[in-house]
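Q: I'm writing a short explainer about Leucine-binding protein domain-containing protein for a general audience and would like to include a description of its predicted shape. Could you first generate the structure from this sequence?
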Amino acid sequence: MKTTPGTRYTRIALPLATAALLTLSACGSGSEESGEAADSAIDPADFSINLDDCTDPAAVTEEITDTFTIGYSAPLSGPVAGAVELATAGYDARIAAENEAGGIDGVMIEVIYKDDAFAPDKAKANGTEFIDSIGVDALATFGTGPLSAMVDDQNAACVPMLYPSSSTKDYVDIEEFPWTTTILPLAENEAKFLVDLIQDRYDEDVKVGIAENETASGSVQSEAFQAAAEDAGLEITAIVSDADPVAAATELLSQDVEVVYHGGVTGTCAAFDIASGRVGYEPDLVLKPSNCVNAVEYISAGDAADGIELGAFGKDPNAPENADDEGVALYREQMEAAGVPEDVIGNAVAVSGWTQADLVINTLKQAAASDDGLTRLSVMAAARDQDYASPMLINGIQWYSTPELLTGIDGFRPITWNAAEQRFEPAGEVISIRPE
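A: Of course. Here's the predicted structure. Afterward I'll give you a sentence or two in plain language.
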């Protein structure tokens, strides 16, 4: 159940009516023992924050013993609502499974959704209501624009922002934004991975172009790619907007661009490929950011999308190589128990939403194992102390953070779209981006 325009908010806190669900509780430090919290959970005292700066310092250290409430500002309407519906299907299924298994040492997780239509001003208003009127324990959102609108108020109130869908580096500074941590790979890390891929395959005189999405998220991706290219000495021939994808493809074609980085945003990623097919533009390689992994978009593009590549971090539930994967089996069990249809279960965006919730749950379990129990402070401390192989991350990739540095997704595996098979296929081995 989701909110609709005009609905104040929707509460999601329903346990699944199913028996003996497998549950995740591998917590921190890479633990994979089901049903147990990590015995190395960080002590909140080791996480240095001046609580005097908080709007309500006492609330930050008060133990949460009944319900842990997450306020989620999401574009339930507007241009990316379809993608969000997929993501929240996975998110809700993972939360419901944990509640059915008893929650976080008996503490149930409740998610309250409010629609922001992908508009920053609405997201800011939602954040204010979540913090001041509803009194949530944590926040989440979707997209860099909404996150940017919420982040100052959220940090002033010392309410954890747990794994919102954004790749910006603007809020990585732990001293300035101690209460914010994001889920998507940092755009600068992903861009370096893609630039390295180009330089491994092409001569230095290859013509590279960028098709940039005109949203905050698209700008972050484009700017990161430009910076990575400059650092590597890779010349960019042309930068165009994808607002008119036909015009973008035509311009890049006129400049003989051989390799295109399309900094798309989930829900709009295939429009450029469709336009390229219409104008007869066939670049040698098209690269996308990892959020552009929704197979439904590329199926609609047909042969025009064949061969596009991106760096993946999530497992494909339908891939033959994952048929016997334990993480995929767990994911499928929880999604099916929640009544999610098969076409959604197999979608990469749904996988991402499930993984987002799994990271939240892992963090809460680790916080609950601390000396102070489950508090806002212990939750944020746990979010800064992760080395966790979430079951739907590709084997060899983990979620990594320390009190000093947020890396997040610590690796990628290149994948390529096979139009004939209508699925992504592995195009190489996992490449680590974890700092040494």
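A: For your explainer, you could say: The chain has a mean pLDDT of 87.
Q: Perfect, that's easy to follow.
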